[in-house]
Amino acid sequence: MCAKNEGGRCSIFIDEGFYGSRIVSYKDELNALGVANDNNKECQLLASYLKCHSNIETISRIYNFLSTYKWVPVDEDVLENCKYENTILDFFAETFDVKVHPSVEDYCKLWKSWESSEGCQITHKECCAFWEFVVRNWTPGMEDTFKNNLSKLLVLDPASNVIFLFDKCDVFIGDDLFLTNLFIKTFSRPIFVWFPQPSQKTLTRTKLVEIYTRLGVRTLSESVKKNTSDVDHDAFKPVDSKEKINKRGLFKLILAYLVDPNLKIELDKRHEAVSSVLAIEAFETPEKMSKMERASGHKNVIEYASHFAEEIAEGVLWDNEELVPDLCKLIRLGFLLEFDEEAVEFLMKIKNLQIFLEDHDYLTSTFSS
């Protein structure tokens, strides 16, 4: 192995595992040839080149070497963000005083350091690691600790893809898609709390919404009042919800999708999601209305069906956006079937979907009133 020292000379290291231990007996001869034999100097030289490497195997070999010779760092800024073997992690703990099992207080200190650092660029990976710890260890006691220690929360600027920290009183959970899009277009700075993109199994939007809410973050829908009287009724015509949206077949499809045990969506959450569709006040342009007509051609119908499915799916699953594409496909198929109940039930059968008795009772009570 060869590395350049401060003078620019190449220092050569001998692999005793390859040459055998007898190679050490030629210490003077090797030294005359420029082969390094001072362990401290070797360690310092190797450590200084850690940041030049990106291959985890190479980095791990260097740290194993440093660990073997119990190297003590001069410059502690040499740790790389990689997944290491346990022996190397033990070395980090002993040499750099790295916490093997950081506590809630340690994470609060980290967050405080982010808050106090002007211009601190927090990465997506760091955000995920922090909130994964929070989600994994969330308890009522932890809630109080974070309420007292987190005065700012993360927001993502969609234009620059940069993550910032803003006062938690000035940020919102974007639970209303129409309002969220409107505010994104209107405000010069981001105001919506950060969520991982794409969503992760260990860090779901649903769980983060729950935690953000407990930390005092308000939803946009409860903070803003919509006034539809300002809508240009010449350009937008109100949609008859009973005729085009509130169809039993549509709601049966939505419930059949949400009832999947793998999604872990509880009964009240399912019914709450469906109720949000019932409360929709929709408008459409004359152009969209014309595309609704079957006589206007298959392309226009499937285009309208796609837009319709996207809007409904995003509204139902605003806090589980990773599930939107699958529900969207299902609603689009149902739309093409005009949400005819017999056709919807056959679709559910071939898609291996069903609704439970309590969901059936909910549908019956909803559409009998």
Q: What does this molecule look like?
A:
- It is built from 19 helices and eight strands.
- With 369 residues, the chain is mainly alpha-helical.
- It has three domains: 2-95, no CATH class; 104-223, no CATH class; 231-368, no CATH class.
- The protein has a two-stranded antiparallel ribbon. A two-stranded antiparallel ribbon has the order 3-4. Strands 5-6 form a two-stranded parallel sheet.
- Helix 6 (104-116) runs parallel beside helix 8 (140-149) and helix 13 packs antiparallel against helix 17.
- The longest helix is centred in the last third of the chain and has 19 residues, at 298-316.
- The protein is elongated, with a radius of gyration of 30 Å.
- The model is unreliable at 1-11, 75-82 and 289-295 (pLDDT under 50).
Number of helices: 19
Give helix % range: 40-55%
Distance between the termini: 81 Å
- Taken in chain order, the helices and strands follow as EEHHHHHHHHEEEHHEHEHHHEHHHHH
Cα-atom radius of gyration: 30 Å
* Count of individual beta strands: 8
Low-confidence stretches: 1-11, 75-82, 289-295
Portion in strands: 5-15%
Sheet having the most strands: 2 strands, antiparallel
Number of domains: 3
Q: Could you give the order of strands across the largest sheet?
A: 1-2
Inertia-based shape: elongated
Structural class: mainly alpha
InterPro entries: Auxin_embryo_med
SSE blueprint:
Blueprint: E1 2-4, E2 10-12, H1 16-19, H2 27-32, H3 39-48, H4 56-68, H5 86-95, H6 104-116, H7 124-137, H8 140-149, E3 152-157, E4 162-167, E5 172-173, H9 177-186, H10 205-214, E6 218-219, H11 220-223, E7 237-238, H12 241-244, H13 248-258, H14 267-278, E8 283-284, H15 286-292, H16 298-316, H17 324-336, H18 341-350, H19 357-368
Parallel strand pairs: 5-6
Antiparallel strand pairs: 1-2, 3-4, 7-8
Helix pairs in contact: 6-8, 13-17, 13-18, 13-19, 16-17
